[in-house]
From TrEMBL:
<dbReference type="InterPro" id="IPR039421">
    <property type="entry name" value="Type_1_exporter"/>
</dbReference>
<dbReference type="GO" id="GO:0005524">
    <property type="term" value="F:ATP binding"/>
</dbReference>
<feature type="transmembrane region" description="Helical">
    <location>
        <begin position="146"/>
        <end position="172"/>
    </location>
</feature>
<feature type="transmembrane region" description="Helical">
    <location>
        <begin position="44"/>
        <end position="61"/>
    </location>
</feature>
<dbReference type="InterPro" id="IPR027417">
    <property type="entry name" value="P-loop_NTPase"/>
</dbReference>
<dbReference type="InterPro" id="IPR011527">
    <property type="entry name" value="ABC1_TM_dom"/>
</dbReference>
<dbReference type="GO" id="GO:0016020">
    <property type="term" value="C:membrane"/>
</dbReference>
<keyword id="KW-0472">Membrane</keyword>
<feature type="domain" description="ABC transmembrane type-1">
    <location>
        <begin position="1"/>
        <end position="207"/>
    </location>
</feature>
<feature type="transmembrane region" description="Helical">
    <location>
        <begin position="67"/>
        <end position="87"/>
    </location>
</feature>
<keyword id="KW-1133">Transmembrane helix</keyword>
<feature type="transmembrane region" description="Helical">
    <location>
        <begin position="184"/>
        <end position="202"/>
    </location>
</feature>
<dbReference type="Pfam" id="PF00664">
    <property type="entry name" value="ABC_membrane"/>
</dbReference>
<keyword id="KW-0812">Transmembrane</keyword>
<dbReference type="InterPro" id="IPR036640">
    <property type="entry name" value="ABC1_TM_sf"/>
</dbReference>
<dbReference type="GO" id="GO:0140359">
    <property type="term" value="F:ABC-type transporter activity"/>
</dbReference>
<protein>
    <submittedName>
        <fullName>PGP-14</fullName>
    </submittedName>
</protein>
Length: 270
């Protein structure tokens, strides 16, 4: 919020930085990030540690099973990364096109005028249309999250099927003892359980990643007019001279508002 206060005027001329959208970002981004920096983050760290430990144990006792199980985990990781990227893109598009929050804030700010003009129904329709657009976007994301959830929550059964198939073959050929083979299989199955326990937080982490990117973009953005705390401190006498001033809004650079403006105001003159 402090950085927003120091932005140049052209920053707010951009429709993407409308007051309603900026307020929505301030209200939603921080809670979305906070949602994963709690016990959920701890569960994911536990799961990653368990997966590494289980892979090491499996390689010690039965490398054939370990290679297959590690390959399945890597394949699942690539699928989850792809789904996360897809959802992140959808989140960014949704944030850019988030009109519902902006409309709601601007309507409430001007509610007395809207009531006096008896245009409540019209503005309600605007808000409802924008909300339905958000709903459609959320449903699309929900489908992707459902695919991820179904894959991760059934991953243990895929792991069980493939590792037992390889383990039986290894025992049959006499490459490893049944004791070592089953230790490797159990280790990989425990790794799959760790994946299942942590993957349920997938939607929150993707949402937090997008929110963090938007939040830090605002925090680190430098105003075009320069740093407020840097620069010269000239002696100001109070005389102002405008000489051949040109101006156009950033969204319409080819439509000048001022052209060749020049005038002088002396100190004390109004």
């Amino acid at each position: 919020f402090r950085n927003l206060l120091y932005q140049d005027a052209s920053y707010f001329d951009n429709p993407a930085h409308a007051p309603g959208k900026l307020i929505t970002r301030l209200a939603s981004d921080a809670p979305n990030i906070k949602a994963v920096v709690d016990a959920r983050m701890l569960q994911v760290i536990y799961a990653l540690s368990a997966i590494v430990a289980c892979i090491v144990i499996a390689f010690i006792y039965c490398w054939q099973v370990a290679i297959l199980g590690t390959s399945l985990i890597l394949l699942l990781a690539f699928v989850m990364i792809g789904l996360a990227y897809k959802i992140s893109v959808m989140n960014i598009e949704q944030i850019k096109n988030d009109e519902a929050g902006r409309i709601a804030i601007e309507i409430i700010e001007n509610v007395k005028t809207i009531q006096l003009l008896t245009r409540c129904d019209m503005f309600f329709d605007h808000y409802e249309t924008a909300s339905k657009q958000q709903k459609r976007s959320e449903l699309k994301k929900g489908m992707i999250e459902a695919i991820n959830y179904s894959i991760t929550q059934s991953f243990m059964y895929f792991m069980m099927c493939f590792t037992y198939a390889v383990g039986i073959r290894v025992i049959y050929q006499g490459d490893k003892s049944s004791d070592d083979t089953f230790k490797g299989i159990i280790a990989m199955m425990l790794g799959a359980v760790a994946v299942m326990n942590s993957a349920q937080y997938f939607p929150e982490f993707v949402k937090a990643k997008t929110a963090a990117g938007m939040l830090f973009n605002i925090i680190y953005r430098k105003p075009r007019t320069g740093d407020l705390m840097e620069g010269d401190r000239p002696e100001i006498r109070g005389n102002i001279l405008f000489e051949n001033v040109k101006f156009s809004y950033p969204q319409r650079p080819l439509q000048p508002i001022m052209k060749g403006l020049q005038w002088t105001a002396l100190r004390g003159q109004t």
